[in-house]
Amino acid sequence: MDPWSNCQYTINVPNNVPTKFEDNFIPVFYEKLPDHEKYLAALESKLQKLRSNPHVLKQLTAKKEFYMRQLLTEDSTPIALSSLETPIPDSPILRSILPQKQAIHEGELVEFIKYDQLSTEKEHSNNQDELNSERN
CA-to-CA distance for 90 and 37, rounded, in angstroms? Predict the structure, then answer.
């Protein structure tokens, strides 16, 4: 016997129910804005100013040389992956007091970030400013 046979419900479905997606995923090609030529000309003039300015070119060259020197002189000795899995004997005192500080294997003790990028860039720019002020 069906317990729901006595239930009579009418469902009202509105007529304005959407029957398709909002986005039909067909690329739409927009018309160019009326002032696009003017905007492109302004961008081109700014690019020409940057290209012709020797100060900007010197800064870019100095930055490039700095990063190349940093790449060449940086200590980049690879860490053997097998040594990262070496278990560390645990300290019962450390495990009871600060269990979050207790390393389980060597891989948890590796220092992945050697320095703060922003602070080194700031130090480098300060050093450059000092050198420039000493020259003047």
Answer: 69
Q: Do 105 and 84 touch, CB atoms closer than 8 A?
A: yes
Percent helix, strand and coil across the chain, each to the nearest 5:
55, 0, 45
Residue 123 CA to chain centroid, in angstroms? 22
pLDDT for position 107? 77
Sign of CA dihedral 44, 50, 51, 53: positive
C-beta of residue 84 within 8 angstroms of C-beta of residue 109: no
3-class secondary structure, 5 = coil
Q: Please give the helix or strand (H or E) that residue 74 lies within, else none.
A: none
Q: Nearest-5° angle of CA 122, CA 124, CA 127?
A: 110
Degrees, nearest 5: CA angle 10-12-17: 150
Percent of the chain with pLDDT over 70: 83
